[in-house]
Amino acid sequence: MSHALFPALALAILAGAAFALDNAAAALDRNADGYVSFGELLSDHPDLTVETFAALDTDQDGLLGEDEVTAARTTGLWPSDPRG
Ligand SMILES: [Ca+2]
Ligand SMILES: [Ca+2]
């Protein structure tokens, strides 16, 4: 019985990580790993540069977590949505 709970639990944890991002960032998180990668952000913001992404990626792990997305928005570094 307990074995059947593991996949559900794992899914719940993964979903929780994804939902930790706010809605706009979560929409960018196409593989639902809870982080926005350069490629994921680039697909919505074609004019994104490596330099801008690096400035957003404050811990330099190559991914934007919720705190980095929030910080980027707060400081105005987050690329504006080309779709308005
Ligand atoms: Ca992702
Ligand atoms: Ca990061």
UniProtKB/TrEMBL annotation:
Domain of life: Bacteria
Annotated EF-hand domain residues: 27-41, 50-68
Signal peptide per UniProt: 1-20
Pfam family, any one: EF-hand_5
Keywords: Signal
Gene Ontology molecular function: calcium ion binding
Gene3D superfamilies cross-referenced by the UniProt entry: EF-hand
InterPro entries, sorted: EF-hand-dom_pair, EF_Hand_1_Ca_BS, EF_hand_dom
Name this polypeptide is given: EF hand
Organism, scientific name: Poseidonocella pacifica
